[in-house]
Specification:
Layout (H helix, E strand, L loop, with lengths): L1 H31 L15 H13 L13 H15 L3 H14 L4 H13 L3 H14 L4 H17 L3 H12 L10
Length: about 180
């Protein structure tokens, strides 16, 4: 009986030593673990107001021989006026809602699609803005100020999405929006 008791005490001593050893090895392993480089600092938010200014400046500053101005229904103009008023108050949700109402009346109007794309830029909805701008370009005149605004929207969206390659390609397409006047002699 005494031998059994000695073996049990010895077994418990070994188990305590094993727990201490496991804990010690765990601490050492944790201390030696390499976690890799520190994470990159978060990217600063994109200045949506500056992006919107760039888009509109691209259209304003284009001197092209061809400019296409659409004829619109008066009710569409009412929604656009309301959207622009909301935009001036920086109420981009209301501006988007009014632009959507105008698009219900003329879903394939390139100028309306581009305006909605610009509102989406202001809302930092980059992918939606790009899709709307590309649809506007596909349906629009593919030249002049609307074309320039389309491609500048893609530039801004792709830049915000860290896609420099596509942004550079869009910059090249932007240059194609200007049509030089024909020299007549």
């Amino acid at each position: 009986m005494r031998q059994l008791r000695t073996r049990i005490v010895s077994l418990f001593s070994c188990m305590k030593l094993a727990h201490v050893s496991i804990a010690f090895v765990s601490v050492l392993a944790g201390a030696c673990a390499h976690t890799g480089p520190p994470p990159a600092p978060p990217k600063p938010p994109v200045d949506t107001a500056a992006a919107l200014r760039e888009i509109r400046a691209a259209g304003d500053g284009l001197d092209s021989a061809v400019q296409v101005q659409p004829l619109r229904d008066a009710s569409i103009d009412g929604y656009l006026k309301s959207a622009r008023a909301a935009e001036s108050r920086q109420d981009y949700v209301a501006a988007a809602r009014d632009a959507d109402e105008a698009l219900k009346l003329a879903p394939d109007a390139p100028e309306l699609l581009q305006y909605k794309a610009e509102i989406e830029i202001a809302r930092a909805q980059w992918s939606e803005a790009e899709q709307l701008a590309l649809k506007s370009h596909a349906l629009g005149p593919r030249s002049g100020s609307l074309c320039a605004r389309n491609w500048q929207t893609v530039v801004e969206a792709r830049t915000a999405l860290d896609d420099a390659l596509t942004a550079d390609a869009a910059r090249q397409r932007l240059k194609e929006c200007r049509i030089k006047p024909v020299l007549r002699m």
